[in-house]
Each structure stands twice: as C-alpha cells, then as structure tokens.
Amino acid sequence: MAEVSIRVNIAGRTYPLTVESTEQPVIRKAEQAIEDNIKVFQQYYSKQDKQDLLAMAALQLAAKSVNRAGSPAPEATVDPGDADLQAQLHRLIELADGYLNT
Questions:
Q1: d(CA 71, CA 8)
Q2: pLDDT per residue over 9-34, tens digit each?
Q3: Which residues form the domain of 49?
Q4: Cβ of 58: how many Cβ atoms within 10 Å?
Q5: pLDDT tens across 31-61, in order?
Q6: How far apart are CA 93 and CA 30, in angstroms?
Q7: What is the secondary structure of 18-72 as a DSSP string?
Q8: Which of 19, 50, 61, 71 is most buried, with most CB under 10 Å away?
Q9: What CA–CA distance (Å, rounded) separates 10 from 70?
Q10: Interatomic CA distance for residues 37 and 62, integer angstroms
C-alpha cells in the first residue's frame, strides 16, 4: 500500500503524519471527532486550557471506543472499524502527548 504524508490539526496545533493511504479517511474522522469534542468542552466548561480540553476530549473518545469494544454486537462480533479507530486514536494521543511533553 502507498504511504501518504498528511497534516492533522488538533487543538490548534498541526502534526505531520505518514500513513497508509487507506488509513487517511480514518485519521480525518478521528481528527474531526477530537475537534468536535474540544469545541463542546469549550462551550460548556470554563476550562480554556487547550491541554485540558484535549485530554478531556481524548478521554471521552477513548471511553466510547472501549465501551464499544467491550460490548460486542448481538452476533458476538466487534466491527473491525472500531478496533482500527481505537488504534488510530491511540496513535494520535501518543503523538500529541509526545509534542506536549517536549
């Protein structure tokens, strides 16, 4: 598969990534989900620190992913898309954590 270089914007920061071309739509959906959650937290909570907002958005998305993975569908299977999204979110969180801790 072909790798592509993309840039994702999370909490006002741009992160360069190299991903498989087939992963790009998943990364974009994850990027949008994080940004959507950050906007919700900004509207409803007085916390305006980007790191706090990012942490809460990541926690909420990870909890949803874990909940879905831990609760199989009635036919006792887990949608492979959920596992892929969980892996991508974990990758983005590690990347963001690396940038925030430098």
A1: 30
A2: 988 889 999 999 999 999 999 899 88
A3: 3-100
A4: 21
A5: 998 888 888 888 887 767 888 888 888 888 8
A6: 11
A7: EEETTTHHHHHHHHHHHHHHHHHHHHH-S---HHHHHHHHHHHHHHHHHHHHHS-
A8: 61
A9: 27
A10: 12
Residue 76 DSSP class = S
Q: Which two tokens stand for residue 81?
A: 């898309």
What pTM does this model have? 0.62
Structure tokens at 47: 């916390």
Q: Name the packing angle between helices 24-44 and 50-70 (round to 10°).
A: 120
For residue 6, give every residue at least 6 positions away whose Cβ sits within 8 Å of its Cβ, in sequence order, or none. Answer: 16, 17, 18, 19, 24, 27
For the record, the structure tokens of 85 come out as 């999204």
What is the tally of structural domains in the chain? 1
